[in-house]
Amino acid sequence: MTLYVPGRLLEQIWAHAEASYPEEGAGVLLGSVEGEERWAKQLLPFANHFAPESRHNRYLIDPRDMLRAEEEAERLGLDVIGVFHSHPGHPARPSEFDREWALPWYSYVITSVQGGKAVESRSWRLTADRQQMQEEPLQVQQDQLT
């Protein structure tokens, strides 16, 4: 599988990650699935609802926000295809906590934020046996003016 993300959406992910620093920022990706390809079309950034003392290395999207994301996706004729979150001061790879809470049908875009600046984003998928996160290609698309 490959995840395609328009450049403007990646810029929004990075802006949310930087604004959330030194805490983790998170949100939901809306888009479509076409065979082995996933196409991000819109994102919904959300507040981190994890306990304040742990927000520097944990995130929690409120279930009401997830419901709102599902409703917005349906309204737009899209699907919830993934989750994005940041890792302040850490690499753009999943932690064991990320693996434990991941769902196998989502893409997980993780952005490394170093010193308040986003430096890298990578996408991951949980394997069907839930044993590991495997990196999936993340293709940034140039935005088309139409």
What are the main properties of this structure?
Cytidine Deaminase, domain 2; alpha/beta; globular; 8 strands; 3 helices; 8-stranded mixed β-sheet; 146 residues
The CATH topology turns out to be Cytidine Deaminase, domain 2
Strand order, main sheet: write it out.
7-6-5-4-2-3-1-8
Question: What radius of gyration results from the CA coordinates?
Answer: 14 Å
**Spans where pLDDT lies below 50 across 5 or more residues:** none
Percent of residues in helices comes to 10-25%
Major β-sheet, in short?
8 strands, mixed
CATH class assignment: Alpha Beta
**What is the string of helix and strand elements?**
EHEEHEHEEEE
Number of strands: 8
Total domain modules:
1
CATH superfamily: Cytidine Deaminase, domain 2
Helix segment tally: 3
| Dominant shape | globular
Instruction: Examine the secondary-structure arrangement and name the CATH architecture.
Output: 3-Layer(aba) Sandwich
**Mean residue pLDDT:** 96
Strand content: 35-45%
Describe the structure.
The protein has helices spanning 7-20, 63-76, 96-101; strands spanning 2-6, 26-34, 37-46, 79-88, 107-114, 117-126, 133-136, 138-141. A hairpin with a 2-residue loop joins strand 5 (107-114) and strand 6 (117-126). The protein has one domain: Cytidine Deaminase, domain 2 (3-Layer(aba) Sandwich), CATH 3.40.140.10. The mean pLDDT is 96. The radius of gyration is 14 Å and the shape is globular. It has 146 residues and is of the alpha/beta class.
